[in-house]
Amino acid sequence: MTLNIVATLRDAWGLFLRDRSLLIRLAGPFLFWPALALGLLVPAPPLPDEGVGEATAQATAWIDSVGQWAGQYGGWYLASYAVGLIGTAALLALVLSEGRLTVGEALGRALGIAPRYVLAMVLVALPVGAGMLLYILPGLYVAGRLLLVGPVLLAERRMAAVAALARSVKLTRGAGLPMAALSACTYLGGIVATQPILMLIDLSKGGGPGNPVALALLHAAAAAVAMAAGLAQALIAVAAYRRLVNRPA
After folding, report:
1. Is 55 part of a structural domain of the chain?
2. Rg for the chain, CA atoms, rounded
3. Which of 40, 54, 90, 215 has a 20 to 30 Å separation from 111 between CA atoms?
4. Which domain covers residue 227, as residue numbers?
């Protein structure tokens, strides 16, 4: 039996409607505010210089500038990434509990598995990122096969990070394409929805500092999209996990 994409999305929407007040209370401080703080306070990584000159010299200069940027601002990105992961784990714990946990209890459960969860998400990001760089579709396929790692760690206790990846691959066997489509809903959906906002941010700056009020509003909109994408991914992962873990062997 394969996975019904529409039914899974409907399940995810039902989970949101059931727990929306608690989910928003968690998603705000852990998914929205860190993204907004990065947008307002941390400059974007430097882009390659496309000016005239030797390609090797341009690449070397760009690598040096990225290294300087990472040394100055990389820690803030890592901190934001870690906060977002803890928040996502808490969201998963809250949804999987069927309303039995409070926000504080869900956060406590997330902190309890934080080392394994962060390690698992880093292990997921490596093959997904490589697949996205090579071609989009392989990256989405890998993302779909590993989408259940989070629910597995929260629902199936005391499982190691690597074992959770293997468990997700096993659960999604035979449902790779539907899982890839579900992962595209959040990965590509978030990117597509954010691009117009990023273009408006560049236009608002116009080569200068730009209007601070307009920029704050635009960065808030981008952070809201990021929060919605992260929340949707967690809900879809839980909905897909429940369908696949209960399907006939």
Report:
1. no
2. 19
3. 40
4. 5-41+67-245
